[in-house]
């Protein structure tokens, strides 16, 4: 699962040793980051969590974590709990690949649909989610504790494995446009 170009991106399961880099990425990505140790909690045995990282493999340099996503499997749905990409790596398709891989793994484990909350002002994230075919189905007033911003509730129903496989592709030009 690498991408062409000077820096390869590998999407893989998070390891406990990734935690310091993942927590730092969360801190630089969000006004209200997850509590210390929360990502490690998601890795516990028998968890219903899917935790993936995007690892950049620059030529001649040490790998670095540039993205993370957490999905919670709840009966027949996957709730996207968080998705973050390092600011310098945004707009390169890494978020698309991470989300698609998370949804594919969830579908393989029985998920039929997905839901998530997103800040109403987060245009970058909304663009990503609408590109997957998510639809706004509700509003959660004052959802975010840091500034009481509203959240949009989005759903994707059903999870289409063929479309998700194309969206997870290394080459974004191959991904279909979802109407």
Q: What descriptors fit this protein?
A:
179 residues; alpha+beta; Aminopeptidase; seven-stranded mixed beta sheet; disordered N terminus; disordered C terminus
Tell me the name of the CATH homologous superfamily: Gcn5-related N-acetyltransferase (GNAT)
Radius of gyration: 16 Å
How many domain units? Answer: 1
SSE string, helix = H, strand = E? EHHEEEHEHEEH
How many runs of DSSP E, i.e. beta strands?
A: 7
In CATH, the topology is named: Aminopeptidase
SS content category: alpha+beta
End-to-end C-alpha gap: 26 Å
Strand content: 25-35%
The stretches of 5 or more residues where confidence is low (pLDDT under 50) are 1-5, 172-179
List the helices and strands and how they pair.
Layout: E1 8-13, H1 19-29, H2 38-42, E2 49-57, E3 64-74, E4 77-85, H3 94-108, E5 113-119, H4 123-132, E6 135-140, E7 151-156, H5 161-167
Parallel strand pairs: 4-5
Antiparallel strand pairs: 1-2, 2-3, 3-4, 5-7, 6-7
Helix pairs in contact: 3-5
Characterization of this structure:
By secondary structure, the chain is an alpha+beta fold. The protein has one domain: Aminopeptidase, CATH 3.40.630.30. It contains five helices and seven strands; from the N terminus they run βααβββαβαββα. A seven-stranded mixed beta sheet has the order 1-2-3-4-5-7-6.
């Amino acid at each position: 699962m690498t991408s062409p170009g000077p820096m390869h991106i590998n999407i893989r399961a998070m390891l406990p040793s990734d935690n310091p880099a993942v927590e730092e990425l969360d801190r630089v990505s969000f006004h209200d980051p997850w509590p210390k140790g929360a990502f490690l909690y998601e890795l516990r045995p028998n968890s219903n969590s899917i935790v993936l990282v995007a690892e950049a493999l620059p030529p001649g340099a040490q790998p670095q974590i540039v993205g993370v996503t957490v999905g919670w499997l709840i009966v027949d749905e996957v709730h996207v709990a968080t998705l973050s990409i390092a600011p310098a790596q945004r707009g390169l398709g890494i978020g698309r690949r991470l989300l698609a891989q998370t949804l594919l793994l969830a579908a393989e484990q029985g998920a039929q649909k997905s839901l998530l909350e997103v800040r109403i002002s987060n245009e970058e994230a909304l663009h990503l989610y609408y590109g997957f075919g998510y639809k706004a189905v509700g509003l959660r007033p004052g959802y975010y504790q840091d500034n009481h911003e509203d959240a949009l509730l989005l759903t994707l129903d059903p999870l289409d494995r063929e479309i998700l496989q194309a969206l997870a592709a290394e080459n974004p030009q191959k991904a279909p446009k979802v109407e």
